[in-house]
Design a protein that fits this description.
This protein has helices spanning 2-13, 22-25, 61-64, 100-106; strands spanning 42-47, 54-59, 65-68, 84-87, 90-93, 96-98. The chain is α+β, with helices and mostly antiparallel strands. The strands form three sheets. It has a two-stranded antiparallel ribbon. Strands 3-4 form a two-stranded antiparallel sheet.
Length: 119
């Protein structure tokens, strides 16, 4: 439900976002134009190892609304040769959300499986 809550919050804050089709919010449809300056930054709060530790990540709209070439847009997108904007967040499976590439592109991410304590 995290992704559904994100989409609902964006639609609540930005009236123009309400007219975007459901396929756009599923990441399966591009739109030819969108006013990125009107869209909100997203703040994600992730729980750390200790229950009282919270990591806050702020994500600008240019990361979750990405300009993509036409070949990334479905045939029903009707964006022409110029491509369009794609909602770049998606649910990975029922009940789970994939933060993935959107966050990896915006933040430095270190993977160290041998760290003790784990980071």
């Amino acid at each position: 439900p995290i992704l559904a809550n994100v989409v609902a919050a964006i639609k609540l804050l930005v009236p123009d976002a309400r007219i975007l089709p459901p396929e756009f919010w599923k990441g399966s449809l591009c739109v030819s134009s969108i006013d990125i300056a009107q869209m909100p930054w997203l703040r994600m709060e992730l729980e750390g190892d200790a229950r009282d530790t919270v990591v806050m990540l702020d994500l600008p709209p240019c990361r979750y609304l990405q300009r993509v070439p036409a070949e990334y847009c479905s045939a029903t997108s009707n964006t022409g040769e110029e491509g369009g904007y794609l909602f770049a967040m998606s649910a990975s499976s029922p009940g789970h959300n994939l933060l993935g590439q959107v966050l990896f592109e915006h933040f430095y991410v270190a993977h160290d499986a041998s760290a003790s304590p784990r980071i």
